[in-house]
Structure formats: structure tokens, C-alpha cells
Design brief:
Helix content: 40-55%
Bound molecules: ligand LQQ7U7AH
Number of helices: 15
Strand order of the largest sheet: 1-2-3-4-6-9
Strand content: 5-15%
Distance between the termini: 67 Å
Structural class: alpha/beta
Low-confidence stretches: 1-34, 123-134
Length: about 400
């Protein structure tokens, strides 16, 4: 009986992706203050599902189905199929399991899931040896792999490694590839005197045909996908902070496993100065790491921390003298890369997995708020000031 049920369920699921009526999120927002997804975002996600390059598997397809039903019809309101009606009973169970989840939260979860599926279906094939990996299109990101360590290097030193739209996409692709290559540790670092000056503020300079609203919508989707890659990264992730760090390059540090910094580094999140609000899950990770009042001083008032201060507050693991920084850090990482890879992965999972869904919810909420902020006069004026060379941090 179980075999027949399994075969029927597989046959049913294989047709799922063809119809929008049967399609959505692995992690559920349970109706709290999740990011508000428009009907258009939802419709786009429904269409995107049909374009997935890889079959996401029956379990995911069932979740998509259940979320679609919840998003369009609300809580399950049809009679339970009989025990022998395996297929419809499986579908009914999945929909019914969503309980009283609101239509809006279901829509959001659907869009989030599809976005994660799309990102992973675009990643290179598993087990591709790191040395054979195609480099990103531009040279603003350099990915290398040696001694069991994949290094992702921001390489735009003349602009203090500010992150362009292309770089966000390249970093996501590099993380996806590193999660599947043969390396055991992944490192993010920068070229030149800065680690990263945060979001390239000229990303806001070219407004698309849909206007400011469309720009903010696209920015929120990009930011959410970008941060999700850090939340879900399965191997030990280390930041080698070679100089000052600003904005999003600081906030995502709460999602790294280890952060090594030169004593020249500083850590600055000037969101209020820019009319913006915290991202990278920092509204959750920073209070947890350093306590709410220290987090508030950074995230609300934009206090810049020295490397030593950031270390004292738990954001940085260890600080090294600038003169010996590279030598000491890489020697240590090479030694760590000899440890058993599976054990390290499993230890990371057990440390991080409990919070993964919470982090996805926080990320969605931060992006929702930022999407509104980016359309505010306070934010537009701050960016215009920088672009017209009137203001720096
Ligand atoms: C679809 C649209 C949205 C897309 C966005 C999606 C995702 C975004 C999510 C994140 C959102 C926000 C988080 C943040 O990161 S907020 C922080 C943003 N960063 C800043 O405000 C830093 C601005 N830069 C400065 O204040 C200074 O440059 C500096 C970093 C303090 C360094 O000062 P310096 O005197 O040592 O060097 P300077 O001459 O100023 O810099 C050299 C050149 O580099 C350019 N540059 C530096 N940082 C940036 C930047 N962040 N954006 C753009 N350009 C930057 C600087 O303009 C100089 O260029 P040039 O030589 O004059 O041409």
C-alpha cells in the first residue's frame, strides 16, 4: 500500500510544476510582521516556478501547493479525502497543516521559497572541482581555491570595495558554488586598504521605468536573496577583515562563524545618517551578540567601533597587528582546513540550524522596512548628498 501511495504521489507531484494552481516555502513566517508581498510579486513567483531548471522534489512541491492554496483561498476549507484517495489526501494534509496562517504570510512564504529555489537552481553542478569553476564575468570579485579554502575577494579597491549590483549577484553565485565544491572553509575578504565600504550608493542612481517604487522593490528582492545565501551557507564561513568595513559588510558579520580583523579595521553602520535601517539580520544578531544598548549605539546612532571594541563586544573573534595580519590569519586557517570536513559542517549545523528560520523571518522583515525607507525623502536626500560629493561618512 505504501509503495502504491508513493508511486501515485510521485506521479501527481511530477505534474505539479506545470500548473500555477499547484505550486510555494520551506521556512514559514507564521503571520507576524513579515515583508509585505504584492500580488504582482506573488504572480511573478508563480510564473517563475514553471521556469525552474531542476525538479525541486516532492516535499518542496507539496509545500508550494499548500502555500499556493493558503495564499489564494485561505485556510483549508474542503472535506478531508478518504484514506484510499492517496494523492488528494497528501495534498489536503499539506494544506491543512498550514492552519490559520494568513493569506499574506502564505504569499510571502511562497515568494521566499521560489526565490531560494531559483537561486539554487542557477548554481553550478554539485562536486564541480573548485579549480575548474568559471570566474565571475567581471574582475570585481576574485574567487580562488587552495589548501581546502575557497576565498572570495572583493576586488574594487579604488572604490573601497563598494558593492555594485553585479557584485551582489557574483557573491551569491560564489557562495552557492563554494557550498558545493571540495573546499572545507570559505573566506570573504577585500583587496586594498578597505574591507568594504558597503552598498555602492550609485546603485540608486539609475531609476528603472517603474520609478522609485520599482527600484526599491528590486533592491529588497536582491538584498533578501543576498542575505539568505549567508543564512543558509553550510560550511564554516570566515571573514578576514583587512581594513575598515561599512554598512552591509558589517551587518552580515553576525552570520559568519569567525571574524578575524586587522587592528586597522573599523566597523561602521551609519544607517540613520543615510535615512536607512538595519539589514543583514543585524537587528536580531547584534543585540544577541553585544546586548541591546551597544547594538543600538551602532545601528541607531551609527557609532563606529575600532577593531578592539568590536572584539570586546563579540562581533570580532580576534584582532591581529596589521603588519602580521595576513601571515598569522592564513597560517591559522590552513591549520583549521586540515580538520575533518564533515565534522566541521555538522558542528556548524548544530550551532546554527535552530535559528535559521528565525533569521529568514528577520531578513524578510528588514527588507520590507528598507523597501519603504528607500522611498523616503530622508534616504533620497542622503544619497543625493553623497552622489553630489557633498557628504561622506
Ligand atoms: C536596485 C537598487 C538598490 C540596490 C541595492 C540592493 C541592496 C542594498 C542593500 C544594502 C543597503 C545599505 C547598506 C549599506 O551598506 S549603507 C553604507 C553605504 N556606504 C557608505 O555610505 C559609504 C560611502 N563612502 C564614504 O563615506 C567614503 O567613501 C569612505 C568609505 C569613508 C572612504 O573615504 P575616503 O576619503 O578614504 O575615500 P573616497 O575618496 O571617499 O573613496 C574613494 C572612491 O570610492 C568611492 N566610494 C567609496 N565608497 C563608496 C560607496 N559606498 N558607494 C559608492 N562609491 C563609493 C568614492 O566615491 C570615491 O570615488 P571617486 O574616486 O571620487 O570616483
Amino acid at each position: 500500500m505504501a509503495g502504491l501511495a508513493g508511486r501515485l504521489a510521485r506521479r501527481w507531484c511530477s505534474g505539479l510544476l506545470r500548473s500555477p494552481l499547484q505550486v510555494p516555502a520551506l521556512g514559514l513566517h507564521m503571520g507576524g510582521p513579515a515583508m509585505r508581498t504584492s500580488q504582482k510579486d506573488f504572480n511573478n513567483a508563480v510564473n517563475q516556478v514553471k521556469l525552474l531548471k531542476e525538479d525541486p522534489g516532492n516535499e518542496v512541491k507539496l509545500k508550494l501547493y499548500a502555500l499556493y492554496k493558503q495564499a489564494t483561498e485561505g485556510p483549508c476549507n474542503v472535506p478531508k479525502p478518504g484514506v484510499l484517495d492517496f494523492i488528494n489526501k497528501t495534498k489536503w494534509d499539506a494544506w491543512n497543516a498550514l492552519g490559520s496562517l494568513s493569506k499574506e504570510a502564505a504569499r510571502q512564504n511562497y515568494v521566499d521559497l521560489v526565490s531560494r529555489l531559483s537561486a539554487s537552481s542557477e548554481s553550478p553542478s554539485p562536486e564541480a572541482p573548485a579549480a575548474d569553476r568559471k570566474q565571475p564575468e567581471s574582475d570585481t570579485l576574485v574567487v580562488t581555491s587552495e589548501d581546502g579554502i575557497t576565498t572570495i575577494r572583493l576586488n574594487r579597491p579604488t572604490k573601497k570595495n563598494a558593492l555594485t549590483n553585479q557584485m551582489y549577484h557574483d557573491i551569491m553565485a560564489a557562495l552557492q558554488a563554494a557550498s558545493k565544491d571540495e573546499s572545507v572553509i570559505t573566506v570573504l575578504t577585500g583587496s586594498g586598504d578597505y574591507y568594504c565600504s558597503g552598498n555602492d550608493l550609485t546603485n540608486f542612481a539609475s531609476v528603472p521605468p517603474g520609478g522609485l517604487e520599482e527600484m526599491a522593490r528590486r533592491g529588497a528582492v536582491l538584498l533578501r536573496d543576498f542575505v539568505n545565501c549567508f543564512i543558509d551557507f553550510p560550511k564554516p564561513l570566515v571573514a578576514v577583515v583587512n581594513g575598515p568595513a561599512v554598512g552591509i559588510s558589517v551587518t552580515v558579520l553576525g552570520l559568519f562563524d569567525v571574524v578575524y580583523a586587522t587592528d586597522r579595521a573599523t566597523f561602521h553602520t551609519p544607517f540613520s545618517h543615510l535615512g536607512q535601517s538595519p539589514e543583514g539580520c543585524s537587528s536580531y544578531t547584534f543585540p544577541k551578540i553585544m546586548g541591546s544598548s551597544k547594538a543600538a549605539e551602532m545601528l541607531i546612532f551609527g557609532k563606529k567601533l575600532t577593531a578592539q571594541e568590536a572584539c570586546a563586544q563579540g562581533l570580532v573573534t580576534e584582532v591581529f597587528p596589521d603588519g602580521t595580519f595576513q601571515k598569522e590569519v592564513w597560517a591559522r586557517l590552513k591549520a583549521y582546513s586540515k580538520l575533518p570536513p564533515n565534522t566541521m559542517r555538522i558542528s556548524k549545523q548544530i550551532i546554527r540550524n535552530r535559528e535559521r528560520e528565525t533569521l529568514h523571518t528577520v531578513n524578510a522583515e528588514e527588507c520590507r522596512v528598507l523597501r519603504e525607507r528607500w522611498q523616503s525623502d530622508e534616504c533620497m536626500n542622503a544619497i543625493a548628498s553623497f552622489l553630489s560629493r557633498k557628504a561622506k561618512l
